[in-house]
């Protein structure tokens, strides 16, 4: 079961990224008037600061036992972005965790990632798009691929419409996702959302009367964090720091706008197994 949180994922001043032992210059958070993002494929040969910025110095609410820390985001020589969760304290939190998010917002299309999540009770390794509540009283819209570290033989697929996230489905993987990098994706269209694992359709929801779908463009996020509080523990399990840093690794993130051609071999935009398992 998923859990809903009211606190928005607001952007703050982004400081520095620890990059292969060195630091990148100070970066300012993007303006609220960012343009709608275009199709891209990022294989992390470098860290593109025009596309991504790093969350730092805050948490998303009382449900998190960690604060976002810029030094927990590293670009590896293997051309992967590694997010870490450590027992370093920050902003009155006992642990630090990691998140990157896009500068731009993205709309209908196909969202793809190759990743390996962390394995530990009480943690989440995530790939999702998100837009928070607005001045018109609309709650969050969000589409999720979330690995709960208590059982990395499953993945949780979910979406939010106007703050309602009671749509979660737990999918059995048939392997331990924490042991290897695999491909995951979702395709967001006005009338449907489809989720994929290694190119195979595993779950689909369709718009129906009285069953709205997400509509508002949102930023793309990847994150690794630990939970706090009884309600969160009911979802994630209790968190106990294992004594060494936990890590999640991402080696390709891509977005293909609806109606645009396939961008790379293996993309679900090129074709996929249409029979949901």
Structure description:
The protein has 277 residues and is mostly beta strands. Helix content is 3%, strand content 38%. It has one helix at residues 230-236; strands spanning 18-19, 22-23, 40-42, 52-54, 66-68, 73-75, 81-85, 95-102, 109-116, 123-131, 141-148, 154-160, 169-172, 182-189, 192-197, 200-206, 219-226, 246-257. The strands form three sheets. Strands 3, 6, 7, 9, 14, 15, 16 and 18 form an eight-stranded antiparallel β-sheet that branches. The radius of gyration is 17 Å and the shape is globular. Mean pLDDT is 88; it is low at 1-33.
Write the layout of secondary structure elements.
Elements: E1 18-19, E2 22-23, E3 40-42, E4 52-54, E5 66-68, E6 73-75, E7 81-85, E8 95-102, E9 109-116, E10 123-131, E11 141-148, E12 154-160, E13 169-172, E14 182-189, E15 192-197, E16 200-206, E17 219-226, H1 230-236, E18 246-257
Parallel strand pairs: 5-8
Antiparallel strand pairs: 1-2, 3-18, 4-8, 6-7, 7-18, 8-17, 9-14, 9-18, 10-11, 10-17, 11-12, 12-13, 14-15, 15-16
Entry summary:
With 277 residues, the chain is mostly beta strands. The chain has 1 helix and 18 strands.
**Assembly form of the protein:** single chain
Q: Estimate the helix proportion, in percent.
A: under 10%
Order of helices and strands, N to C? EEEEEEEEEEEEEEEEEHE
The averaged pLDDT comes out at: 88
Distance between the termini: 20 Å
Low-confidence stretches: 1-33
Q: Compute the CA-based radius of gyration.
A: 17 Å
- Please count the beta strands (DSSP E, at least 2 residues each): 18
Strand proportion, as a percent range, falls in 35-45%
Shape, per Cα inertia axes: globular
Biggest beta sheet attributes: 8 strands, antiparallel
Tally of individual helices: 1
Helix/strand structural class: mainly beta
């Amino acid at each position: 079961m998923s859990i809903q949180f009211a606190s928005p994922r607001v952007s703050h001043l982004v400081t520095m990224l620890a990059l292969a032992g060195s630091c990148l210059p100070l970066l300012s958070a993007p303006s609220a008037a960012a343009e709608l993002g275009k199709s891209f494929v990022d294989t992390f040969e470098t860290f593109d600061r025009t596309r991504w910025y790093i969350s730092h110095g805050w948490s998303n609410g009382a449900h998190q036992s960690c604060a976002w820390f810029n030094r927990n985001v590293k670009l590896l020589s293997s051309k992967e972005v590694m997010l870490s969760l450590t027992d370093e304290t920050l902003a009155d939190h006992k642990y630090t965790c990691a998140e990157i998010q896009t500068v731009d917002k993205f709309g209908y299309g196909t969202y793809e990632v190759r990743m390996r999540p962390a394995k530990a009770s009480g943690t989440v390794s995530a790939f999702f798009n998100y837009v928070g509540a607005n001045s018109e009283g609309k709650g969050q819209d969000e589409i999720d691929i979330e690995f709960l570290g208590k059982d990395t033989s499953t993945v949780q697929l979910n979406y939010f419409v106007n703050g309602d996230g009671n749509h979660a489905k737990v999918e059995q993987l048939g392997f331990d996702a924490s042991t290897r990098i695999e491909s995951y994706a979702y395709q967001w269209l006005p009338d449907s959302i489809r989720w994929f694992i290694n190119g195979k359709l595993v779950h689909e929801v369709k718009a129906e009367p009285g069953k709205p779908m997400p509509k508002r463009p949102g930023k793309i996020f990847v994150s690794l964090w630990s939970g706090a509080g009884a309600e969160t523990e009911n979802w994630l399990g209790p968190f106990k720091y294992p004594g060494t840093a936990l890590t999640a690794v991402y080696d390709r993130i891509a977005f293909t706008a609806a109606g645009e051609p396939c961008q790379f071999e293996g993309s679900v935009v090129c074709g996929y197994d249409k029979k949901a398992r």
